[in-house]
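Example complex used in Figure S2.
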Amino acid sequence: MRILLVEDDPLLGQGLCTALRRGAFAVDWVHDGAAGLYAIRDDTFDLVVLDLGLPRMDGIDVIRQIRASGNPVPILVLSARERPADRTLGLDVGADDYLGKPFDTAELLARVRALIRRSAGRARPTLEAGPLQLDPTTLAASWHGRNLDLTRREFALLRLLMEQRGRPMARDAIQRHLYGWSDDVASNAVDVHVHALRRKLDPGAIRTVRGIGYALGDLAGAAP
Amino acid sequence: MNSIRGTLLLVLLGTLGTLMAVAGWFSYRAGLQEAGEMFDARLVQSTRVLVSLVDAPLSELNAYPGEPIVLRGWHGQAQGVGEDLAFQDGHAYENKLAFQVWDARGRLLLRSDSAPLTPLAERVPGYADVVIDGARWRTFTLRSREGRWFQSAESTDIRQELATDIAGGTLTPLVLSLPLMALVIWWSVALATRSLRRLSHEIGQRDPERLALLDPDQVPREAQGLVRALNSLLQRLDVALVRERRFVADAAHELRTPISALKVHADNARLAQDATDREDSQRLLADSVARVERLIAQLLSLSRAENVGGVRHRTRLSLDALVRTEVDELRPLAEQKQQSLRVDLDDVQVSGDEFALGLLVRNLVENAVRYTPAGGTIEVRVSRPGAHAVLEVDDSGPGIPEADRERVFDPFYRRLGSGEEGSGLGLSIAREVLVSHLGTIRLDRSSRLGGLSVHVALPAGD
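Predicted assembly (686 residues):
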């Protein structure tokens, strides 16, 4: 799950990056509205966290242009403009959620999770596939009721594949969803994580789709 | 002179009283003059009548009678005026008239009983004013053809009494009108100031949220200037109030992002999974605290700079010493950025508030240090080319494009891409200080260093 953060304040931006990464999200951070718009056009994100009072292009115009281009990416507005009229405007031009500053970090993360859940068309807050359970809130994973000790990136990969419900995903698409621009990515990084997960769960938990990439295996009858 | 009513009463009644006193005195003088002429004429007439009546019969006396013949007058007791003094057999004032007839050898032949035995006056023909037994008399002396001296006299009391009566008659109604006058003044002041009382009631009912203007047509013309002055004050108050409210709203808005950063870093530090992450978050948290601190300090500075408008704290001070102090404070920051911070200070005096001018200098120099990249140069000069003290701060930084040179003075306006964490208040503070010190500020491209040149002119203090 990859999030684009558009925030011009350096101190707040750094803090938000850390907080979002703690939630096992890959974060890309741009400092002005125009850069935000370019990033959304040229790359894929699962969510945009957008400030409104931005240099070069106001956040409201950014939302308008994203929606005008037909892009349905979930947008969470994070702004110091917190009067009801401001919130109404933000939501009406196409934002999916609106959080006024100063905000609570836990609430921001909860809203991010909720938006991603909704955009995936999922009803339950936890992800389940056979004996595999994932709780995005606590970042806890269990296999046949046994707690799994996963790294943040492994958790993110598993969550990504579970959201696809068995549909295969290309390796570089997986990589784009797991890593931000600034992350140092080895060429076989995805393969390394897949390998580690197979070892921790079951060799068939993730199947290789030849010529495409990976998909979640059929876990219904998997052995503990 | 605090009460219109008191002033009017004092001035009007005082003037009237003085006028009456002067009128009374002139009237008394005129009465005395007219009565004198009339009584003088009557004195001559009665002397002549006496001569024509007694001169011939006296010539028939062959020998001196030894004793003067005495003519007796009315000797009753009476008091009052006019008819109260007149009786069938005489008049109370008869003793105020007297006459004597002397023969050529100086013997008294005839006298009224009101006349003494000594001559009423020297035996010289004509009028004389004499004092007999402490009383003042007017006399007329006439010598008959037979050589006798006829002397008539009249007490001057009568003339004075007449003159006093005339003056009194003129003044009495006027003096009696004074209390009436006072009442009229009292009442007319109350009438004229009724609209003023209504106005003060209206002002008293005002609340600071509703600074509507007063209607000058509701008060007398004389008070319209006051109402217009009040209206102008109300307008300025309204502007100040709107500005104050906007400032508070802006300040609250500006604090939202820094406080958000504080909260996020505090959460990050608490939830960090390893020591490195925790230390990073703690460092960022400290930076965020420092930023909020600085923003609040700047807000207080701006509010203080706006409030030094008066001349309360104004002293004569040395601009170069002030600049030297502030530059020394900022030198560590410049050294940290390996900047060259140069000063060129002439001895210049200004008059102003030391705190406010210190803020001005600090903000300008701090801006230069902050926005000039590492390794750059900043020059601070103080000079006095003419009637003004001039402070110039030049730097080798990126400068400010011409289009932005007005907007940068707006509170909380931050230029984009400066990469610096300013509050957006520095130049607002500088301008507020200069407004209250009648100074000017101008931004330019520095011809010496290529960056920004800030030119400040203040009235010199000597």
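The mean pLDDT of chain B is 86. The interface with chain A takes residues 253-254, 256-265, 267-268, 271, 273, 277, 280-281, 284, 287-288, 291, 416-417, 421 of chain B (CB under 8 Å).
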